[in-house]
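Internal ticket #5521
Category: modeling
Description: The requester needs a full-assembly model to guide mutagenesis choices. All entity lines are attached below as received. Residue total reported by intake: 546.
Assigned to: D.W.
Attached entities:
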Amino acid sequence: MAAVVLDSVSKVYGSITAVDRFSLQVRQSTIFGLLGPNGAGKTTLIRILTTLTRPTSGRALVEGLDTQAEGRKVRELIGVVPQENNLDRYLTARENLVLHARMHGMKPEEYNRRIDELLELTGLSGRQHDFPDTFSGGMQRRLVVARALVHTPRVLFLDEPTTGLDPQSRRAVWDHIRSLSRDMTIFLTTHYMEEAEMLCDRIVIMDHGRSLVDGTASELKERLAHAHHYELEFRSGGDRYEEVLRALPFVKSLEKVGDTFRLTLTAEEDLKPLMDSIAGADLRKICLREPSLEDVFIELTGSKVRE
Amino acid sequence: MLVLRRALFSELLAVIAYPLTLYLAFGVGLKGYISAVEGVPYPVFIAPGLISMTAVNAAFDESAWSMWFHRRVQRTIEEYRVTPITVYDIVIGKILCGFSHGIFKGVAVTAVIFVFTPFRFSLLHLAFYLFYIILGSMIFSCLGTICGSTIDKPENIGRVQAVVLVPLIFMSGIFFPLSSYPAALVPFIKLLPTTAAFDGARQALLHGIMEPVYAVNLVVSATVTFLLAVWIFDRKMAE
């Protein structure tokens, strides 16, 4: 049985279609990543799956349960890490976890041991009687993850779990997520390609409420294997060639980083006319560049900043 | 309750200071100028209303600000909503929280007025009085929950208090008898739930009278505001 099923789900807010006939199945005990630019519809999908928002049409199932008809049962099975650290700042770290356990109907003899384990696991045992306001962003994030795990959910939803964290805290959260994947299905959204690549067994990139591409990180990169990404580095006078390169009709994209130009050609055969156009240049390096997941993302969703 | 227990002293100090100041200013300060109102010494006349005012204000403040804070600032309402409890559990919990703050703070002010002033009342009248305090706190807790659920800007909650609640409270005869109003206005003033809560409470505590019109007014108002608060919160969460 699939852990998560979306069957032609749409969500419309007035004149805006946030999710447009989106279908998906996520296998149990996998880490699934949903990628997309701001406003792509990722958070709306998570809100539908966690029973916070009703879809305008279509059906969403979690562990075979309909999120609308059986919302309460769904909420018993899921853990949610929202984008923002919505901890109660008037309760200590431990009290936040106890409150969550009690809302799940757990008894003290069940939750006390579980909370001890989770605080140990997240490295917060020594700060369990402190208020979340006194924690760093990374510690608050770990506490939110611990809270989502108190009742041992079968499906864990993580909405941009590492946004705003420093690299060390981000890696600590990643390690923690990876350690959980044996026992539960993890459904995460992220902006970070590296995060998706490191963690996810399967990735879907979405935009404008629709799924654009679906596969493992290497499968997605393979899709861009036909694209011809090159790096050119000039020893001197690189600026002079920027306009020349931009004017070439077969250069699909051009990015300048220091003295290096990253460019995408429309076809392999364009390499020769490219070299002809910069003949005589003081070239230090020219190399073929493997496409990254970010290239795939930009290729599919465009490079313009969204409002 | 855990949070209230932690801040008990500061909460009580803040809550008691205001009605006690009013009592001293009006009850003691004006005592020499106003000998008796409807046959009752002025400090005694205003005391039941001050206790009721403390209770209903505390109920409104707690439910409105707590709901707003948990919804807009901490966003803990979203955390509650992804657990097996329902939106009805959440809103009823918030209403009961405001209600219990009202009762608790009303009792605290009663104790302080009782200890530090010559105000005395019959314990037999207390049960009637509690009826008014309980329903008054419930109504204001529901109104607070409605404000906290629907108002996004905090200054607008303050405006509702200043423009709607304070005039309603002061119009209901805390500091003067209803007979001061023109006779044609009195029936309308008596229809206000605040009048039922304050004037009814005074009659209950000082004279042991249970006014049926006031009692029905409060029961109906409490029922309507409760249903409205639950419905509005449910609708707001479904948005």
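Resolution: model delivered.
Comment from assignee: The domain at 2-216 of chain A is CATH 3.40.50.300 (Rossmann fold).
Ticket closed.
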